[in-house]
């Protein structure tokens, strides 16, 4: 990729506010993503008691939604190319709405698992469609910032889930206790999710179709109208549609290249780049911090009742630092932020692994002596800072923009599906690793993955700052000087 394809940054025009509004509407899917990933945490102990579950089945009930997410992400990209972006958003909202009701009224663990899988399908669909839609309606100079709204919405969803869980549990006197209308508090934790699901569905009915999908369906005039609403006077909507038409015609001439298949282990190199970006984002262990933080907080001196407060502080930190990425992504580019994040995460995870080599006790009775407790606590939160300001939002931005038009939705679906599978593997592997090796083992492994992610970005990830989507040719990073 050459810098000649880049678009100079332009001051924001009032018409760009419409692009921001559409991006916010699409990013509500990210809110559902974050909400669903965290809402189970407040209910897990009550569910275990309600259905008399062992630890293995409890862990599976927690993580099984991630498998549904993987399937939803894989299917979502293909459905988006057939039905259009907003229709698939609506499908995701309906699935999540139904899942929330079913989970709230679950009568056994097996139907709860079924409803969680259905919800996962909806979340997987939303996780694919939001970054694709945002990339396709955003002005090039703002695409990074608008794409980052997906991660911001995810962090807000995590925070909202933690907050609503606490409110229901505290007002009822415990997650297992009766709350409104005699239903246990844990059931209301799931039921309240119908509100954001309904909002997402309503927004999906109101937002316009992606210009690229409209052009592919022969609806040129509609595509011009949509782009005219969001680009402002600095970009010619008619010219942009003409560029889209050229890429679509070129893709028709190269129809055999519309497949994801390629020479690199059966896939195109750029698809592997997307997959590995997704896997690295999860293999640094971010969800361990949010899902399994109790051991760490108790080890540094917090009692169990205070662990929620610390978790909320961590989630707020994650929200705040996402704004750093939003502010910088279209100014300094994707690669420098990812490289900085990789180094910072590797260092902080290494410090955490070192701190836990000094731990005493076992199981739930682990403690860190002297200064090691505060060191581990600070390192954990700095890890969240580095992740939230880099790999958290930027992976979603890159997945939405790095693939060529002919394979964007399908390739994004495959990459997102791999991300959910990686999330599942990290989620279910941490407890046995913790039991076998203590906290040092998993944190050291995550530090190694963070270090490897630095070299992966350095050698393979392309810079996409300021480029039009029509200029994305699917080339991976080349180790040679870029032309001016």
Outline the structure in words:
The protein has helices spanning 16-50, 55-83, 85-104, 109-137, 143-147, 149-172, 185-191, 194-206, 211-216, 220-231, 237-253, 269-283, 286-291, 294-299, 307-332, 334-356, 372-388, 391-401, 408-437, 440-460. The chain contains 20 helices and no strands. The radius of gyration is 22 Å and the shape is globular. Helix 6 (149-172) packs antiparallel against helix 7 (185-191) and helix 10 (220-231) packs across helix 11 (237-253). It starts with 15 loop residues before the first helix and ends in a 24-residue tail after the last helix. It has a single domain (3-207, 254-471), classed as Growth Hormone, Chain: A (Up-down Bundle). With 484 residues, it is mainly alpha-helical. Helices cover 73% and strands 0% of the residues.
Task: Please name the defining characteristics of this protein.
disordered C terminus; globular; mainly alpha; 484 residues; 73% helix; 20 helices; single chain; Growth Hormone, Chain: A
Give the number of domains. 1
The assigned structural class equals mainly alpha
Q: What's the pLDDT, averaged over the residues?
A: 81
- Tally the beta strands: 0
Helical content, roughly?
over 70%
- Quick one: overall form? globular
Distance between the termini: 10 Å
CATH classification, class level: Mainly Alpha
Strand content: under 5%
CATH topology: Growth Hormone, Chain: A
